[in-house]
């Protein structure tokens, strides 16, 4: 479970980079991105159809790749599966960090670097979301929190429930909150630093997970 929490923190980093640094577009949260695309198509100011559409298509391509990898590695141990996708995700985030060198947040230029970062962050988020979906760990999706928050409230003692998995749900919310907050603070140094740290966190977590050789640590 720890490796998925680390990835949830990294999602906060990526959303901070994309929404704050790339001009109001999400590359991890596709619910928000689809809404922003709808706003942009209807003429809402400061929103870009091209950016939102590029992010959506890139995310779907990543999810497609994640689905293919999942089929090929369905019989493999989870630590090998997560290590493979984690290495790909980290590599793409490192590539995004390199692409972000020379990008200016205030002027949102040059556009070539902006779109490169959109693609290189949306693809790994789609890949990871498809992978986590196949693992089907309850209440840890790593990229969205709507279902997690709903379960936290609907299954609470206030609603007559037994607070099932309340600790896990709260940790997921706090992980993404922390990632988003820290990510925005790191944007003071540009896009490269949060992307490098995010990639390093994913790589370290998946390597540690693999070296531990636990048969299924995401369900601990």
Summary tags:
220 residues, mainly alpha, globular
Brief summary:
With 220 residues, the protein is an all-alpha fold. The chain has helices at 2-21, 30-41, 49-72, 78-99, 111-135, 146-154, 166-186, 192-212.
Account of the 3D structure:
The protein has 220 residues and is mainly alpha-helical. The protein has one domain. It is 70% helix and 0% strand. It has helices at residues 2-21, 30-41, 49-72, 78-99, 111-135, 146-154, 166-186, 192-212. It is globular, with a radius of gyration of 17 Å. The chain starts with a helix and ends in an 8-residue tail after the last helix.
Number of strands: 0
Structural class: mainly alpha
> What is the rounded Rg?
17 Å
Helix content: over 70%
Q: Into which percentage range does the β-strand content fall?
A: under 5%
The total of helices stands at 8
Query: What sequence of helices (H) and strands (E) makes up the elements?
Result: HHHHHHHH
What's the pLDDT, averaged over the residues?
Answer: 91
Low-confidence stretches: none
Main beta sheet strand tally, sense and closure: none
- Cα(first) to Cα(last) distance is 6 Å
Q: What is the 3D shape?
A: globular
Secondary-structure blueprint:
Elements: H1 2-21, H2 30-41, H3 49-72, H4 78-99, H5 111-135, H6 146-154, H7 166-186, H8 192-212
Helix pairs in contact: 1-5, 1-7, 1-8, 2-3, 3-5, 4-5, 4-8, 6-7
